[in-house]
């Protein structure tokens, strides 16, 4: 691939991206939490549950990119204050999505990692803005994007001065409608041969079905992913967004045990993951 001066693997060491105590690209990082922050009670309950179940970081949307303008749009600043509280109480680094370049600098004061969502993967103003910032960027693959387009988006962030990018495969749109998206797990080893950046997998948006999340998480760990981001809710039926795809905390705990076992097995087989 042409033009990926900073993002390509060629001759470079693998990048480890630090966020608080977490290092993406060294071991297997599991991010979990609700799709959206809905209230202080909801977030604190889920934060404590995912921490107890073995999560390494907490997710929660404050600004939601919804298909309908009438759907819940997120609590904004109120959500960020609650995320900050959860971070202080649990010690888990926090990930939230930023939609608007004007929000990058002030949102950076509340969270540890900024997510650029699938719908914004080619929002070049947003990429340049997070590239000028100091927070690690979790860059989701666009739902219609090739690997080359995705890696070029990472190049925007790196070339603007921020080397801390974590790639995230979250499924692409195909003719299949049984699943919400088609989770392209071949992207994991493909990205690892093309780029030095860590790559994680989102089996939640990748499948949209609770029953498929655990098997695809295990497959992601077997394929060499550096981690997962998973939606968890203590009362999925009442969730204000993505209720059909949220795992209960108990199911998430089982998943964590299984993916860590697969990861250990893979490390044994490969003699450590290079
Ligand atoms: C999300 O993580 O809540 C989200 C909206 O993800 P994506 O951008 O992958 O659809
Ligand atoms: Mn979601």
Helices and strands in order:
Blueprint: E1 17-19, E2 22-24, E3 29-33, H1 40-52, E4 57-59, H2 77-90, E5 94-97, H3 104-107, E6 113-116, H4 124-132, E7 137-140, H5 147-159, E8 165-169, H6 187-194, E9 199-201, H7 203-207, H8 210-223, E10 227-231, H9 249-270
Parallel strand pairs: 3-4, 3-10, 4-5, 5-6, 6-7, 7-8, 8-9
Antiparallel strand pairs: 1-2
The structure holds phosphoenolpyruvate and manganese (II) ion.
Percentage of residues in helical conformation = 25-40%
Approximately what portion of the residues adopt beta-strand conformation? 5-15%
Counting DSSP E segments of at least 2 residues, the number of strands comes to 10
Calculate the mean pLDDT score and round it: 97
* Number of structural units classed as domains: 1
Q: How many separate helices?
A: 9
Explain what this protein looks like in three dimensions:
The structure is a single chain. The protein has helices at residues 40-52, 77-90, 104-107, 124-132, 147-159, 187-194, 203-207, 210-223, 249-270, and strands at 17-19, 22-24, 29-33, 57-59, 94-97, 113-116, 137-140, 165-169, 199-201, 227-231. The chain is α/β, with parallel strands linked by helices. Manganese (II) ion binds next to loops.
Which labels suit this protein?
alpha/beta, TIM Barrel, eight-stranded parallel beta sheet, globular, binds phosphoenolpyruvate, binds manganese (II) ion
Short synopsis of the structure:
This protein is 37% helix and 14% strand. The protein has 274 residues and is an alpha/beta fold.
